[in-house]
Amino acid sequence: MRRKVILWNSIDWVTILVYLILVFLGWINIFAAEYDEEHKSILDISRRYGKQTIWIGAAFLLAFLVVVIDSRFYLFFAYAIYGLLIFSLLAVLVFGREIHGARSWFEFGPIRIQPSEFVKFATGLALAKYLSAKHLNINNIKSLASAAIIVVVPVLLILLQPDMGSALVFFSLVLVLYRNGLSGSIFFAGIFVAILSILTLFFDKLIITTSIIIVSFAVFWIVERKMKYVIYAMAIFAVISGSLYGLKEWFTFDLSNYFILVMSVVLSGLVYLFLSYRRKIRNVSIIYFLMVGALVFTFSENYVFNNVLEPHQQKRINIVLGIEFDPAGSGYNINQSKIAIGSGGFSGKGFLKGTQTKFKFVPEQSTDFIFCTVGEEWGFIGTLTVIALFSILLIRIIQLAERQRSAFARLYGYVVFSIISFHVVVNIGMTIGLFPVIGIPLPFFSYGGSSLWAFTILLFIFLRMDAGRMEYFI
Amino acid sequence: MKDFYSNRKYVIAGLFLFVSLIYIIRLFSLQVVNKSYRLSASSNVSRSVTQYPARGLIYDRNGKLLVSNEAVYDLMVVPNQLREFDTANFCTILNISIDDVRKKIKQAQDYSFYTASPFLKQISSKTYAVLQEKMYKFQGFFVQPRIIRKYTMEIASHALGYVSEVDEKAIKENQYYRMGDYIGKSGVEKSYEDVLRGRKGVNIYMVDVHMRKMGSYKEGKHDITAIVGVNIVTTLDADLQEYGELLMRNKTGSIVAIEPCTGEVLALVSSPCYDPALLIGRIRSENFIKLQQDTLKPLFNRALMAQYPPGSTFKPINGLIGLQEKVIYPSTEYYCDQGFYGGGIFVGCHNHDSPLNLPRSIQNSCNTYFCNVFRNILENRRYGSVAEAFNSWREYVMSFGFGSKLDSDFTNELKGFVPEASYYDKYYGKNGWRALTLISLAIGQGELTTTPLQMANMTAAIANRGFYCTPHIVKSIEGQSDIDFRFTEKHKTKIDSSHFEVIIKGMDWAVNGKPGSGSTARRARIEGITVCGKTGTAENPHGEDHSIFIAFAPKNEPKIALSVYVENGGWGSTYAAPIASLMIEKYLTDTLTKGWLEEFILNTNLIDHEEKGNTLE
Ligand SMILES: [Zn+2]
Q1: Do B23 and A329 touch (CB under 8 A)?
Q2: Which pTM value belongs to this model?
């Protein structure tokens, strides 16, 4: 059943207005970041700002095309679009041009296209379509696995390029799952793991292990509310670890305290399992396995950090965590970026007056570090405005998503929210030193055709769905 | 379908708004609360480049350029700013190998990743010209111009001194200096540092991330223009100085020549000397250590710092004091039978005519005579005690500039030593010593020590018949009408000028006396010029005695007074007197009439012991 709607009237102009403001602000900040005394025109196409002018024009054209297409198209062809773009990811690994050690770009004459940008909306469409199926229980392992596969396939292909930043973006889609009913405990366990992994890098593994054991006892007490059990458990643990330590001292074994602690956990675990089985205390085993899981996680994370990550990646992470202070080494980007933003003060140095910007102290300033230009030239007022605009946009997207009558459109709305918010949070977070340097662009702001077009398509598909919400009942 | 999870929209929106809030707080603290980033940003873009002014030039008294400046270029590298570059091209320009490049970059990295360190020091201006055009290709490198000293003649290293990087002490003492600045460390360079250095300037540039200059900061509002150092004309006579150094080759010792009526130092030779060019630029520290470790101590300025007993060259002073105290008269005669005997003390003398009056005793350098004079001075009944008389003697001696620094414009001048009565009280107890106890002072031996500069000054005072002007090395400073008042002031000795003629007569005879009359310094004679001189021998407990000669010429209206010391040279007449005479002739007539004497001196090697013993008969 189809109702005729007038697109002009039903499309959400609030979102479009915020979109236009963001694109405009991005454009003038790219101009400032790349400004060159010899090329004063913003339309000079030999400069990035001139090129961005073209990309913006093309983006508007794309937005128009996306909106005039029938909204059912996106539902029906969701998997096809997904498949096509997955194919493009395969193709780029073969035909792509290698730049800075990553094979992420197709080159067509003067234009470079980054397929990983476009895969985001395609994956979103596919995921929304899969999740919107009736009677799907997302907490069912099989459905969860299928949803995961949709996301993980592009992630793996992008990691092959390799492009860590773009791959990470897909993990934001867990928000979509959460909105669609993913168990809160799994969702927050994910957040817990994220926090734990950061703490692991911060502290010695002995302290982490001890803390996990203490937390486990606390959880045990909270769950069981029987002090007696907790004291028994602690006593067992104390006896086992004490005797292990005694043996080590007696025979002067060359064992670390960490090893003794882990051995104690394993041995006392066997005793706990035996006792809980006899006394039918079900929670013991759950808590115990969670604890072991946490321990294994911290261990493997340490292993990955020390043995898998490249030294420069380790360094970047350490710098964000404040473990290493090195103002001109690998912390150089973050430091210069903070100087740029910090020196802007309350009201900024003024358009084209930023010295950090003008003299190129911040690398990648028109792409990943465009937020620095805002901070330096427009000050706190500027940065606050940009964050406010993104907040308005994203809250508006949630509002629009929530008013959809179809699950598909609503879920896709959350895809848009997840992807844009992840980009915003990570990109701004990295420029102000709260996140590691992960090279992903600031939506609508950063220089580059691919990212601007991909975000425009991402957003306008949703606006088309929203405009057509009364058109069909999908 | 009922949407059970609708409330999760609040969780999701809440999470995002929570992060936004944290970001806003963070931005507020970065941009509004914390002011330090503003400073970092301006220090990021502004680079203060110190402009080192050229140091003042140094000339000799006749306008010959002695010291000038030369620009050299150090190629510096900042390792973390290095980008890939065309190594082959780079190596060709600098004429070094790729291995060198790797090694030097490694060295620089070991020193620091972020601060500049020298990659290649003192590249030629020709290489610099080629390199400069291609500098943009070699990011991370830049060229630092430096001004170093250039010596036009290899002379007067001790008098001119040297320049080197300031040490921490100097930086603490004087706000002007910063790490890496240059400062005069000795000689004229040190004593006239304030004049020679000029004033540093600062240019503040805006630079981009590659340290490329992007114009001046705030239109140069904060720039300070450098002021070039002031030129100095020294009192040195470059030719005389050069000749003196030539004559002193292969000998240790010194020559100090002074223009008596002005106190201007015409030559100041300390031997062995060194090429002043050894102490500039990158070779400085290495050479400095070598010179420091040299057993002949070339860095030691003997002319100012060697303190010897003056020996017989001191006899004229005792004669003058005797005359002034009226304990002798020019005609006073003493018998001498190969020495002085008195109170169980014996001072030997050589074989000569006897008895002798005052001028003849100077001519013959009779020890006995001056022992008697000295005894008369100390046992003078005018004074209540020997100690009182001794202190009065000391006053006379000190009025010639002995026992204290002359306050010249040399650095490192030493005082010498003229003992006080209390000094002997300590040794012998109060009233425990007599005139005869100190009798070695009569012939300039004993505790008395003087420096070659003081001896030259004494000679000038005798030549001037009773006064001296403090010896100094700077004749004029560009732009200043006068030199320091302390150099033009006449210091009167405590001897009436009328007493000098007879002493000068003795010194004249010592050089020009008839053969057989016992003249001790006939080798110093110059045809047509009346040279007055006095030989001396400083006892050296460590080896052969030091040969000393003081002289001035001409006798009337003296133009040059000098002291010559030749260490281990034996009798004063052997080496010191010929050298003095050659110097005088060179200065007064610029000719050489006694080529054989010059040849003898040039062929004398007192340093290399195997060749020693080359004597002239
Ligand atoms: Zn005698």
Answers
A1: no
A2: 0.60
